[in-house]
Amino acid sequence: MERQQETAGSIARWLLGQEKIRSVYYVGLPSHPGYEVLLRQSTGFGGMISFETDSEETTVRILNRVSLIEYAESLGGTETLVTYPMLQTHADVPREEREKKGINERLLRLSVGLESAEDLINDLKQAIDG
User: Fold this and answer.
1) Domain map of the chain by residue range?
2) What is the tens place of the pLDDT at every residue in 17-58?
3) CATH of domain 2-129
């Protein structure tokens, strides 16, 4: 878990600086609304990151181009997985309700595994840049 959350923090901070990434949701970032609460109630931040791209085209390109990161519906393994909630976990939720919850065609969820942060960032970089 320590390795996963350390790597997740590195990836989340890297994503913040990417031109094609509009939002990063990771409780380990001081900008996250739950950050202070988590500091009081927990000893770590976990390995789950959600992020929103600039367009559906960028989102689909990431899904099609990642090679180390696996596109999968289940999350929480030792390997890094990415999911597309709009088509996978929330496909049956009506669009209006889904969008009220922030689940749109630009949102991806990343479950960070045990691979090196550098390798995962390089995989995301090549996928985002196309």
Assistant:
1) 2-129
2) 999 999 999 988 888 778 777 767 888 888 999 999 999 999
3) 3.90.1150.10
